[in-house]
């Protein structure tokens, strides 16, 4: 009887692990509730507080690795280790312009997607419902061997303003600009 119970437990353990895939798995459809796991801890190197300055503004962004349920595919929803970002932007006088550091992780405005197939660049997506649904893509990668300098390239989607938005019909110079476009962050 003990052997049967042991075999059942081992079988359950093996079937659970069969649903795990390394973070850099490409070209397959993940089964429902499978787990795209950061088995080599690549994302951990990005975690922490990063600082940059641009256009008389200072940004602190905190990157954190979480296990996230990607449910946008409904029948093929799966778990994945991703980076999330929360940031605080202030002007030269110390006035806080943007701050989403206190929101819960699942509601973070910056969420990771994946590493590129042929490089070590990590992709993230930005969506800010508080700013009329502004969206954009972010690519990050280390530019030094110590991994204390992070290149950041942000491409804001251009068609994000709708007619219900406060910023509709305003020139681009009067619209919010919460994130830098091309900058180097330094780990704090």
Mean pLDDT: 88
Taken in chain order, the helices and strands follow as HEEEEEEEEEEE
The CATH class: Mainly Beta
Q: Architecture in CATH?
A: Beta Barrel
Low-confidence stretches: none
Please list the strands of the largest sheet in the order they lie side by side. Answer: 3-4-5-7-8-9-10-11
Largest sheet: 8 strands, antiparallel, barrel
- Helix content range: under 10%
Alpha-carbon distance between the two ends: 57 Å
Q: Which shape, going by the Cα principal axes?
A: globular
Query: How many independent structural domains?
Result: 1
List how many beta strands DSSP finds.
11
CATH topology: Lipocalin
The proportion of residues in beta strands is 35-45%
Number of discrete helical segments? 1
Radius of gyration: 20 Å
- Helix-strand makeup class: mainly beta
Give an account of the 3D structure.
Residues 1-188 form the DUF6705 domain. It holds the Pfam family DUF6705. The model has no long low-confidence stretch (mean pLDDT 88). This protein is mainly beta and 188 residues long. The longest helix has 16 residues, at 2-17. The protein has 1 helix and 11 strands; from the N terminus they run αβββββββββββ. The chain has a single domain (22-187), classed as Lipocalin, CATH 2.40.128. Strands 3-4-5-7-8-9-10-11 form an 8-stranded antiparallel barrel.
Write the layout of secondary structure elements.
Layout: H1 2-17, E1 20-22, E2 35-37, E3 48-54, E4 57-70, E5 78-91, E6 96-99, E7 110-115, E8 122-128, E9 134-142, E10 149-156, E11 182-187
Parallel strand pairs: 1-2, 2-5
Antiparallel strand pairs: 3-4, 3-11, 4-5, 5-6, 5-7, 7-8, 8-9, 9-10, 10-11
């Amino acid at each position: 009887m003990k052997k049967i119970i042991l075999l059942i437990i081992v079988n359950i353990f093996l079937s659970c692990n069969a649903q795990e895939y390394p973070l850099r798995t490409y070209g397959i459809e993940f089964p429902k509730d499978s787990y795209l796991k950061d088995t080599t801890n690549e994302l951990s190197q990005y975690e922490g507080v990063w600082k940059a300055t641009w256009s008389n503004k200072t940004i602190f962004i905190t990157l954190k690795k979480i296990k996230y349920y990607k449910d946008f595919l409904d029948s093929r929803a799966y778990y994945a280790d991703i980076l999330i970002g929360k940031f605080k932007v202030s002007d030269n006088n110390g006035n806080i312009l943007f701050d989403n550091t206190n929101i819960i992780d699942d509601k973070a405005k910056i969420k990771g997607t994946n590493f590129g197939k042929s490089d070590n660049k990590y992709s993230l997506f930005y969506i800010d419902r508080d700013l009329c649904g502004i969206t954009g893509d972010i690519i990050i990668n280390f530019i030094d061997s110590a991994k204390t300098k992070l290149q950041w390239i942000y491409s804001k989607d251009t068609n994000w303003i709708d007619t219900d938005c406060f910023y509709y019909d305003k020139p681009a110079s009067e619209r919010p600009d919460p994130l830098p476009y091309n900058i180097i962050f330094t780990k704090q």
